[in-house]
Amino acid sequence: MTGTAAALDDFDLRILAILQHDNQISNQALAAEIGLSPPACMRRVKRLRDEKYIVKDISVVDPNKVGLPLMMLVMVQVERERVDLLDEFKRFLSGLPEVMQCYVVTGKADFVLLISMRDIDHYDEFATRVFRQNQNIRHFETMVVMSKVKVGLALPISTAGNS
């Protein structure tokens, strides 16, 4: 396998499509849904994990139930785009539990973060520690999530014509 979608057959794509919506489905139910025997299905799932098509199995937690109801998107502009400073900031952000997602982007911002907070005081402390005290941060802009229309990481995997 080359690590591209072209290396995957229809069974593999159907497995990935199903597992990214429900990774707790039993192997027997998954096999029945895609039309393979349970042992063949299990071998394919193992291979997809071994070859890093499936990179992580997680549980999605309701932020309200664990006291982190405030979600924000933060756009960050850096002062200097030196590789060492960018790498240091990436490592720093990667270690912060409040940062759920972090992207290096093009455009006016250099980074876009999705963060989860207890309340506005928690955010103020976070913003001071992460942005205001960092001499390489030129500007940051915060947008508070008012409501969630769609939340997910599922890719639009298509099995039509890929077998």
- Output the structural class: alpha+beta
What oligomeric state do these chains adopt?
Answer: single chain
Please tally the helical runs, counting DSSP H or I stretches of 4 or more residues: 5
- Total domain modules: 2
Strand proportion: 15-25%
- The CATH topology of the largest domain is Alpha-Beta Plaits
List the helices and strands and how they pair.
Elements: H1 10-19, H2 27-34, H3 38-50, E1 70-78, H4 83-94, E2 99-104, E3 111-117, H5 120-132, E4 137-144
Antiparallel strand pairs: 1-3, 1-4, 2-3
Provide a descriptive summary of the structure in words:
By secondary structure, the protein is α+β, with helices and mostly antiparallel strands. It folds into 2 domains: 46 residues, Arc Repressor Mutant, subunit A (Orthogonal Bundle); 82 residues, 2-Layer Sandwich (Alpha-Beta Plaits), CATH 3.30.70.920. It is built from 5 helices and 4 strands, in the order αααβαββαβ. The chain has a 4-stranded antiparallel beta sheet, with helices on one face. A hairpin with a 6-residue loop joins strand 2 and strand 3. The radius of gyration is 20 Å and the shape is elongated. The two termini are 15 Å apart. The relative contact order is 0.16. The model has no long low-confidence stretch (mean pLDDT 93).
